Amino acid sequence: MTLLLALKLSHLLLFVYWLGADLGTFYAARFVANEKLAPDARATAAKIMLGIDLTPRVCMPLTLATGVHLAWLIGALPVAGLWVAVSWLVCLNWLAMVLVLHHGGAAAWAVRLAAFDFRFRVLLVALLLAWTVSALAGEGPVTAPWLSVKIACYALTIVCGLMIRVHLRPFGPAFGALMRGGATAEVNAAIAGSIARCVPFVWAIWGLLVVCAAAGLRVLA
Question: What is the pLDDT of residues 141-182, one digit of tens each?
């Protein structure tokens, strides 16, 4: 298998697992918010939800790394090879941060790392959108319109993920209260409301991923 074919296959599989796992996470969240279920059942659903949610979190940085490398190989991103190596280095460190945070729990260092991760993603979005704007203005290395679309849509998926993180902030304390003292009207409302506010951003991610895939058909042709 050539490097080009391996990258095409990897990029495609990352899309499949990202979108598929996102659907699974969304479905499991309905059981977490279901106040008719016992707290233990909701706790099991939450474990399933968080476990499945790791997949799109892993796919996100790897999608960027493989996408940059693939675009470079086919000549759609005419930059020095050093920048491809830098993109892999950044994305692999991002992936490591995702995995560490997944297992870090509520430790003080994990809270600080999560804050750093949030700022890192904001910076990455700014860079990617600036890259897209420069491409639309006819400047910079990106000249293929389909690649500009993919970069912009990918950046917006990160924005949606950040908004989901913001809206899920009440979820942790409310779910902890559910586990400690059982369900109350206030706890149920906080959990359900937190999840409900995330729904538009989840739908947006699905739509953006489909647009990315459609634009990427140019690569797989």
Answer: 777 888 888 999 999 999 999 999 999 999 999 999 988 888
Q: Which residue's entry shows tokens 């706790």?
A: 43
- Contact status, residue 69 vs residue 78, Cβ threshold 8 Å: no
Q: How many CB atoms lie within 10 A of CB 84?
A: 18
Distance (Å) of CA 66 to CA 19, 111, 177: 17, 29, 41
Look at residues 145, 187, 196, 146 and name the one whose alpha carbon lies nearest to residue 167. Answer: 196
Q: From CA 164, how far away is CA 200, in angstroms rounded?
A: 9
pTM of the model: 0.93
Number of H helices, E strands in the chain: 7, 0
Alpha-carbon Rg for the chain in angstroms: 19
